[in-house]
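C-alpha cells for Response regulator receiver protein. Go.
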Amino acid sequence: MARILVVDDDPVSRQPLTDVLESAGYEVSTAADGPAAVHAVQAAGPDFVVLEVMMPGLDGFGVLDKIRGRAGEPIPVLMTTAAAEPESVTRAWSSGVDYHLTRPFTDGTVLDLIDGVLGRVGGAAYL
C-alpha cells in the first residue's frame, strides 16, 4: 500500500483530502506544520507528499528544501496554495516541486494526479 503524507495547517483542507485518499486505499499520514512534515518524511518515508505552501513554523518551500536535500529516491511532491501569484508558482518550480495546484481544486483532482504518478487507476470516481 502506497503511503501519502498530507501537509496542511488547515484541518478543513487536510481532513477531506485525507478521507478521500484513505477511501482510495492509500495509507495516509498528516502534518499540520512544517517541522512536523519534515519529521514525518524522515520517519515514515512516504511515497508521495501533498504540501501546502503557507504554514506556520516552516513554510512549504522550507519543507520542500528539506525533502529535496535528503538522500535516497526522490519523493514526488505536489505543492498546493491559495496564492496564485506568478512569483509563487515560479518559486515552486525552481525549488524542485514536481506538481503544483492553485486552490480551489477538488480532492478528486489530487487523487487522480497521485493515482497517475503512482501507477494506479480509478480515482475519477471522486471528481
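Confidence is low (pLDDT under 50) at residues 122-127.
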